[in-house]
Task: structure prediction
Amino acid sequence: MIASLNARTALVALVAAGLLLLPLYSSITGNIFVLTLFTRIVIFALAAASLNLIMGYGGMMSFGHAAYLGIGGYAVGILANEGIGSGFIQWPVALLVSALFALAVGALSLRTRGVYFIMITLAFAQMAYYIVSGLARYGGDDGLTIYKRSDFGGLINLSSRVQFYYLCLACLFGGVYLIWRIVNSRFGLVVQGLRSNEARMQAIGFPANRYRLVCFVIAGTMCGLAGALLANNTDFVSPAVMYWTRSGDLMVMVILGGMGSLFGPVIGAIVYLLLEEALSQVTEYWALIMGPLLLLIVLFGRGGIVGLLGRLSRG
Amino acid sequence: MADRLLCVEKLVRRFGGVLATDNLSLEVAKGELHAIIGPNGAGKTTLISQLTGQLLPNSGTIRFAGQDITHLPAWRRSALGLARSFQITSLLPDFTAADNVALAAQAHNGHSFHFWRAARKESQLRNAALAALKRVGLEHRADVVVSKLSHGEQRELELAVALATKPQLLLLDEPMAGLGITESARMVTLLQELRREVTIVLVEHDMEAVFALADRITVLVYGRVIASGAPAAIRSNEEVKRAYLGDQHVVTRHG
Result:
């Protein structure tokens, strides 16, 4: 137990330190690409961490989580397109719209369980996908170019690669810290209890769906933030970001890293996107290698990479 | 009758063509230990599930402490002071014993929309949990994960969880199911103590335990009450004897 704790803590500390020092490495070596790559990774790690809150801790297998990436992104893109460039307006709107979407989806889908829940969340995300695909004014299928990143006055300059990277990293660390507080709070224990045994939780007096719904909204809002970051990162937002395969990617990151562990999704996002990057340089058919690799980890590494690490160091 | 805590009237529950609860009426007085017995498939668990809200009846009414609770969801009934233990142990298997009980205490300590403070460090909840665990003799197992507890310990934990909700009425669905002789004896002693504090409805197959504990006994056969009364009266009731001898045709005809 102690050994596994140490191995895990060491890995987490190592990853955190690596992420913090990355811009330094990038400026010394002049390798800008690595900074761009990791900005993307950090954003997806935030999205995966938010999915883990409902999927890992709450037992809610949402298959439509990428919708919030798109909603957060389109909130920024559409406002920018309409001449509202201030991040102080764009970002709160992105969060609010994501929260409202999560509230609507959650209120309806949480009446169901299991496969039906997966299907309904998927259906809602696909609906959102087709709606933004139809927004001709905002690029429709082709997506929407964002000509100017969110403006935060003199506070922070998102056009600076390093500043933007640190903003993303701060959002990730902040998000993970928030999740840590939540899962250990009264609210978090209720949500985890519902995952464990819903009938028992109702019998001792908890109205299940209220707590689930609030958890669902928190996760959606957090992913909306990742969406706003992602749109700024690519200076572009398109329906593709909310396609169902994107939701699948997020699920894979969570499962790969370790469902229901605090840092699992972060590790999962890093490994998944680095693998994708490395393999796609070797072959066009990188998914052919990625697939079996994921299969192995799911088969032999229950609890994902974080779980595997725990068992290895226990010997 | 004295103060009626629970009053069930003409309850009906069908599963397809099967009448699992057949015009069942039942009264439980405040402070009594009321046992419900009957052969397998008599509809005892179905009844308990309707009382606690896991199942809704097709018709009839359930009144608890003067309030009609027939259509209230389970969690609201719990808030009113109705607690149950499950026939098949139903706990949070990946939580510790203390967590299980602390959550029950938490459920009755205002809403749980608190997102920041570490709940496991709230001494109020932990103390309540430890007190309930102590009540059933499990305080030394507080930090053990439920899936690592023995079957007997899990049955005791079920009771501790129910107690932590500070119930007015405790519905116990076969608390001795699967227990060994010593464990059963310990459970009987425990129930002897508890009955002084809380009204209990006990569903049990262990007749020795039932006759040792109950103030009143209701006998169910095919979802119907065929007898209800003091243990001595039930013991000498001809219809009950026939039901337990297996000659249920007689019972049906007389029903």
Observations:
- Residues 96 and 144 of chain B are 5 Å apart (CA to CA).
- Chain B has two domains: 1-81+170-180+198-255, 91-166.
- Chain B has ten helices and ten strands.
- Residues 151-164 of chain B form the longest helix (14 residues).
